[in-house]
Amino acid sequence: VVPKFATYGEVCPSWSDITDGRSGVIFCLCGMGTTRILRALRIRRRLQLIEDEVKRFIGDMVLRIIIMILFNAALMQYLEAESQPYTFDTWAYYMLVTVATVGYGDITPRTTLGRFAAMAMISFAIITVPKLTNELIEKMNQQSVYSRAHYHPKGRNSQHVLICGDLNSTSLREFFSELFHEDHDIRNLHAVVLQPEPPSYEIMSILKDPQFSLSVTFLEGDPLHEKDLARAMASEAKAIFIMTNKFSTNPDEEDAKTILQQFTIQKYLRLRSNTTNTSAATATKKDEATNSLFCLQLIRPENKRHLVTSNESSDSMSHVVICLNEIKMGVIAKATVYPGANTLIMNLLSSFSDEDADDEESQAMKNINGHGIETLDDDEHSDWVGEYRRGCDWEIYMTELSKEFEGKNFCVLSELLYQNYDIVLFALEVEDLKNEKSERRMLLNPAEFVIPSKNDYKIQAFVLAKNKAQSDLTFSKDSPSGTYSLGGKSTRFSQISLLATMASGIANSVPLINNRSRMISSHAAVSPGNEDGEDGDGKGRGTLAWQELLKKYDGQKSAQSLQEELQKIEDKYLKENFYIRDSLCELQDAIIKSSVMEELRFVDNHIIIIGKGLSNLYDLIRPLRSRHLGVLKHIVIVYPKDFPLSVWQRISLFESIWIIRGSALEEADIRRAGIFKAKQVVVLADPSDSQRNDHQAYAARPGSKKGVDALVDADAIFCYQCVRKMNEQAHVVVEIVLHTNVGYLDPESRLNSGDIDYKFTPEFASGALFSTSLLDTLVCQAFYNTKVIEVVNKLIGSVDNREEFERKQKRGGRGSRGNGGQAGGVKGSPPTPGSSQKRLEGSMVSSSLYQISIPEGLESRTYGALFQLLCKRKQIPLGLLRGTFPHTNTGPKANRMPYVFTNPPKDTELFTCDKVFILSPEPIRLKQNKKDDLKEMHDYETRRKSKLKIADDTIQIVRQLREDVQMFGERQECIEVQLQNMSEDLEKKLENMLGTVREMNALNHSYQNSNNNVHNSPDMTKHRNSIDGFNGNKNAKFGSSSFIGAPPVGLNRARSLSPSVPGGRKSLNTTSSFDDADR
Hints:
Strand order of the largest sheet: 3-2-1-4-5-6
Largest sheet: 6 strands, parallel
Helix content: 40-55%
Radius of gyration: 49 Å
Number of strands: 22
């Protein structure tokens, strides 16, 4: 750039005034002053701070084009100053029109230099602008629009949640339907999905759906990178959902990925909270950031210890861990023992619209019965679909109890709330406020529990209600209200609360954070300590490093002792509450070679488990082996391959488990499993990744997606139909991966069409169906109510009281220690209480979920009378299972299959085929166990083992005999070989002897010929005549024998030996070796 002093004091000449070299130099120097605008290119240094490569290039491209236009506008103004004295903005307009190739023609250069400059500028623009555009398009193609997007809050009160992890096996549509459901009183809630891959077909359909398009934002990025977490504003998220692949063949590896993501996000949130300023405005934001709720999905419950170990005591972030296998198998096991329990639990965890909503779906199902036959009844709830839908409106809510309820018995209070408000109080969470070391205890139907004072205890109630407004039990005594009698005392309730039962939209004005703070107030996190080792009150200041190290070592040592103690408690708990073998059983002893009918003739009403994925089989068998069930049912597992040894090592400690190798699609193998005598059949989904990969590969094809979806559940569907065809009386529970395949279970039913939700199908309503997509809705429920996971674990838990067992064992263990303290941070029990406190703690006994028949005398009564009777028995009913009459196979509501009716109205009529779901503190056995039956079963198993041992010994003897016979045959073959060799040697020797005999015969012939010649010669004739007289005298004296012409002695001996060889395998016929002359 030419400085100003170079032309200071000089007048810039025009092009026509240039007469010498000096004026030409001044003209050029004045024209070069326009290059000062090129200094703006230094802004490109600042563009390097932009992380997004596309945005950085766009900024650089825009800066170049602007500078090019401004520079050429200044140059044209200078060159055309005499002929066209336009302003700078006019020439800038001219350059923009020229670069854009519009060329209106209103302004044109007139001077020669101006025209040359315009030509150069146009040439430069034609080359530069398309080049920059192509580079921009190339960079945009390399990165998707989702990888460059950022989340920006929409409004001042906007809140968002972050969803990451593996979403391939997640039913996102049901997840978002539950997350944004109107029953949760949500306002301004947004969901941010962070995934390392581009959006799948399902996510794209959700993003284009008007129901979710304004509430869901998709970002392509890795949650392990801080840059992507900053794009999603993870530090300000109210909750962070980390999903997992529920069908992974390697659950430990999948859980490790989930925990690693949790570590990374948690570390990022800590760093963000530490870098926040200490001002008042940022302090509030810091608290919100550090109080983010983590909702994690883990497959195996054993991997939870890795997550708990990593959480420091100073961490204030709340964690809700959902163990999928534990919950899924627990629900299936509960449904196996009590039909319909899975439908009851899952409907309580899913949000449905109010029954009065006049939508198309309710109109379509209004007058349709179980087999698609239209009815003529106009009542919406007269058929089974109406009753079932009416029961689906009830959900689990947590609320505080009013002071007016202090001193009331739990069962009495639950009955009065049901009779007056139609809500069911079924659980409490109790915390002693006076004892800092007390534990929060979740109690299902503490029947003898009396509501204590709110000054001493913090009580959170769990109720069944239709919406948040109806579940509110914080009644005010001072507000105007009606008067109702509770236990003989007059209690006043708020009129607003009564009206809220009928009006469901009153609470919509309450912000989400207030709802959540009240719903999860009992789950408040501990405030973090400072990095300097001091607590919030300043204690711990000046602590030395070696003291901190010693404390850390003691904590690790106590944690190890805690793990050992918990393991001992677990072993003792299993021995006392489950049917456990005295010694482990070998896998070969449990395999049924032929069939159940032949080898286990006494087996009846047993359970058949069919499936290919058995990695989580332990969680399914364990609740089925509880001693409190009162009956030990045999379990037959049908597996198409060799049973995995790792799975058998975990389940071999339970009694009466048998294995059959066979395919569930073959009727012969199903017969071998004893299908005709089976009481329950469980069909598990196939978790193999091969079908999952096919589903993901073709998911982007709308035309083929439906067919690929059907293949995922093909084996389970065919197996279900096969079992139903062979034994209609057996209760079948089938696990379905994709809920869109539910219609294939009963293709003849019109109710299974794609336009109707699968939750309203007869299979789901009867408890014969479990969909894994329901586990995703459970995560949303945990966001609004963190205690719902604990409630579910209590409902699906075994019928024994494990919590009380562990508490007693821990108390006994602490009593044995000298310090009477707590190990590993386990909270101790309260100090020795008074008599009233002892009675209060003695009444803290949790209940379990059971299913009973209608008590005698109530078959034709109403549900309200049943509720009153059961409350007197210290039992809380939750709903009905509408059955079918055995002689007609049809229910009272024209239903062909049973269905669940959750929390029916008080005037609901009862029938003999109905059953009741109750919460009872006392175990209700399915069948009284007889010691003789168990003894007979053990004796039979002992006899079976002895027979198997005898059979094994016989097989060993037969194998030994076969080995001896084989050895004898080998020896005989050796002897035969030796004899054959001896025969061959003897044959060779005889051949040699015969050769010698032939030579002797030849010599004999030659000798005879020579004798004949001599005998016929004249001399010999003359000599013979001379001795004839002598021969005649000799013959008369010695006989007529003569030696001449007789065979040799050796030849006769050889001939006597030639017919056969003693001891040989074959005769040696040597007669053919002699010619006629020899014979």
